[in-house]
């Protein structure tokens, strides 16, 4: 079984959980205000995505194929979170472009939530694995060995 799923789960799970905790603390006022830190519910969703990645680690360590399902589900949840945050970003940009009163002082940094840029990290990892030939190919994404 390749090592990249285990390393990706550890890295992405830690990144999502750490970012979720930081943004929750910022949202409740325990840390300085961060960009898009008023979205506490979105921060809890980051924790959920990170937990799904982390739970998959024990299955991957035991060489069980069920671990791949945790990677796929966590990535799907991250994609949904990315889509929702992108829609919010787009509607805020549209309000600013149209010059609506509530969006006069809006800047893109205000809506650049971690759900957007963390999904970019996932895409970079997937792209890197694809370019190095460790992802996909003739045998598929998760080859059956044996």
Keywords:
146 residues, mainly alpha
Secondary-structure topology with pairs:
Blueprint: H1 4-27, H2 40-61, H3 66-97, H4 108-111, H5 114-131
Helix pairs in contact: 1-2, 1-5, 2-3, 3-5
Task: Explain how this protein is built.
- The protein has one domain.
- It starts with a helix and ends in a 15-residue tail after the last helix.
- It is mainly alpha-helical and 146 residues long.
- It is built from five helices and no strands.
- The longest helix is centred in the middle third of the chain and has 32 residues, at 66-97.
Could you give a quick summary of the protein structure above?
With 146 residues, this protein is mainly alpha-helical. It is 68% helix and 0% strand.
Secondary structure category: mainly alpha
By DSSP, the count of extended strands is 0
What would the average pLDDT be, to the nearest integer? Answer: 87
Order of helices and strands: HHHHH
Strand content: under 5%
Biggest sheet features: none
Q: How far is the first residue's CA from the last residue's CA?
A: 10 Å
The proportion of residues forming helix, as a percent range, comes to: 55-70%
Enumerate how many helices there are, as a single number.
5
Estimated radius of gyration: 18 Å
Question: Which stretches of 5+ consecutive residues score pLDDT under 50?
Answer: none
Q: What overall geometry do the principal axes of the alpha carbons give?
A: elongated
Can you tell me the number of structural domains?
1
